[in-house]
């Protein structure tokens, strides 16, 4: 497939995945960690597993929470990367190949601010 024949849905899908990582679901956990509260409504009796996370986060200083937040962000990126790798491996169109070799390479490029080829 040539660069010119790549369907718009390919670019849209990759861009949606980047948006999820930068502004959507991929930021929710890391923002909660940075704030030091996973779920403000959690108590010992209501969602106790999330209350345990609240207790854990309170023990961490700002620097440690930042490290943990980065780990959570990275996990989302790696999940998207692996999903794209599997789509390529299974030869699912239009993700069988990308502009920069593989769809996951295009995803990482877009995540880093790379512009789509004209």
Task: Write structural notes for this entry.
The protein is an all-alpha fold. The chain has one domain. 64% of the residues lie in helices and 0% in strands. The chain has helices spanning 8-22, 25-35, 48-59, 62-89, 103-111. Helix 1 (8-22) packs across helix 5, helix 2 packs antiparallel against helix 4 (62-89) and helix 4 (62-89) runs antiparallel to helix 5 (103-111). 16% of the residues are buried. The model has no long low-confidence stretch (mean pLDDT 94).
How are the SSEs placed, and which strands pair?
Elements: H1 8-22, H2 25-35, H3 48-59, H4 62-89, H5 103-111
Helix pairs in contact: 1-5, 2-4, 4-5
Describe the structure concisely for a colleague.
The protein has 118 residues and is mainly alpha-helical. It has helices at residues 8-22, 25-35, 48-59, 62-89, 103-111.
